[in-house]
Amino acid sequence: MYIVNTSFMVEPPVHERWYDLFVHKFMPYLREAGFGESADGGQRRILFTRVLTDSGDPHYTYSLQVEVPDTAEYRRFMQDVMGEYSAIAAPLFGEQALHFTSLLKKIDI
Prior knowledge:
By secondary structure, the protein is of the alpha+beta class. It contains 2 helices and 4 strands. It has helices spanning 12-32, 71-93, and strands at residues 2-10, 46-51, 60-68, 97-105. The protein has a 4-stranded antiparallel sheet with strand order 2-3-1-4. A hairpin with an 8-residue loop joins strand 2 (46-51) and strand 3. The longest helix is centred in the last third of the chain and has 23 residues, at 71-93. The two termini are 14 Å apart. The relative contact order is 0.31. It holds the Pfam family DUF4286.
C-alpha cells in the first residue's frame, strides 16, 4: 500500500476561494475518479488536514493523503486527479496556491 501526500500552500488573499473550490469541486472529483474505495468495494483512506505551525507564516498549509494500492494508481492519481486540479487552480490562483506531491510506501512494523 502507498500513500500519496500532496501539500498545498495557500496565500490569505485567495484562501477562501481556494478552500471552496477544493472542498466542493476537487474532493467530489477525487471520489468520482474512484479514489477512496478499493477494487473490491472497500474503503481506502482519504485524509485532509491543515498543517499547524508556530512559524508565524501568514499562509495556510494543508495536506491531502490518499491511499493507493500500487504505483499504477499513483500515476493515475497524478495524471487524472492532480492534472485536473492543476488545470483549474493554476489559472485561478497562480503562485498564490502552490502544491507538491510525494509518494510514501506504507511499512508495517
